[in-house]
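User: tokens in, sequence out, please.
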């Protein structure tokens, strides 16, 4: 009986799948009628077993998601660099080209009791007038006048009317200085005294005062270069720590973006006579370029992951 049970148990998997001959099937069926132990084992074999589904599509779905993400980031990268290119073109075309002093570049006329009217030469397409108290004499006002044109105005905005503006007196004598912003001395155009009989005295001489450019952009450039050097050193010492190295690369991209932005806006010069404009453009452009570099960095690593998954397949 034991030998018969052993033989039947060996045959049960085949019997359950109808993979035995008719004689063997009759033998096993006859045995199952009289052997409760073998019959229970047969019932267990016949019971449907929970199948562990191996989701073979999961790796493919993951790969598909990464490919889709790569396409989206590539489109975003293209858009960011197109915007950065447009901003760079604007910065170059709209950069002020300061006009040197020449006779007739500014015409000064009295405007009733309110002040003076300044009319600029047709070559001037932009100007700034800054009225402030004299640093060494609070009873006198100074009006610093700057005039410039741009490449955009030279090429695309010809034929405009002469620019003019009004300078309001502060009930104090006022000296009007033309600031050429080319390392030459400022020119005293005129003196305006609202209480004098001859209120406007045309001068046209230099007074030994020179407006110097700001050098702060150079300091920021040095700071960005130093930060980049530190990031490069840390990156070299964290080769075995991939996660740390990844974040160092991401952070280190901003000094790169700032240096490139500085070169686009100001070239290799550290000097600037329009610090607020230049620094604002550098920051804005550096943020754009940094976003683009981050996208390019992510696309690079996504590409490596996609290649690795494709190789495993």
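Assistant: Sequence out:
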């Amino acid at each position: 009986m034991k030998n018969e049970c052993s033989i039947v148990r060996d045959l049960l998997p085949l019997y359950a799948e109808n993979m035995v001959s008719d004689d063997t099937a009759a033998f096993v069926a006859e045995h199952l009628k009289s052997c409760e132990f073998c019959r229970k084992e047969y019932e267990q074999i016949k019971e449907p077993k929970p199948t562990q589904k191996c989701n073979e599509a999961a790796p493919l779905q993951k790969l598909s998601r990464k490919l889709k993400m790569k396409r989206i980031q590539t489109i975003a990268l293209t858009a960011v660099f197109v915007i950065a290119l447009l901003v760079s073109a604007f910065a170059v075309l709209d950069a002020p080209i300061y006009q040197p002093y020449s006779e007739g570049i500014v015409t000064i006329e009295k405007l009733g009791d309110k002040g003076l009217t300044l009319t600029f030469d047709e070559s001037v397409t932009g100007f700034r007038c800054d009225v402030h108290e004299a640093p060494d004499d609070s009873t006198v006002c100074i009006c610093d006048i700057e005039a410039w044109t741009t490449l955009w105005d030279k090429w695309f905005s010809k034929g405009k009317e002469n620019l003019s503006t009004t300078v309001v007196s502060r009930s104090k004598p006022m000296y009007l200085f033309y600031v050429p912003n080319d390392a030459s001395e400022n020119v005293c155009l005129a003196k305006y005294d609202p209480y004098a009989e001859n209120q406007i005295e045309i001068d046209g001489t230099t007074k030994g005062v020179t407006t110097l450019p700001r050098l702060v952009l150079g300091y920021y450039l040095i700071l960005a270069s130093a930060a980049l050097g530190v990031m490069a050193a840390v990156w070299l010492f964290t080769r075995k720590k991939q996660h740390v190295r990844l974040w160092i690369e991401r952070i280190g991209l901003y000094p790169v973006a700032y240096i490139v932005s500085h070169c686009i806006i100001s070239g290799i010069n550290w000097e600037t006579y329009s610090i607020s404009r230049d620094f604002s453009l550098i920051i804005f452009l550096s943020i754009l370029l940094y976003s683009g570099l981050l996208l390019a960095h992510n696309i690079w690593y996504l590409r490596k992951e996609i290649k690795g998954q494709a190789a495993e397949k």
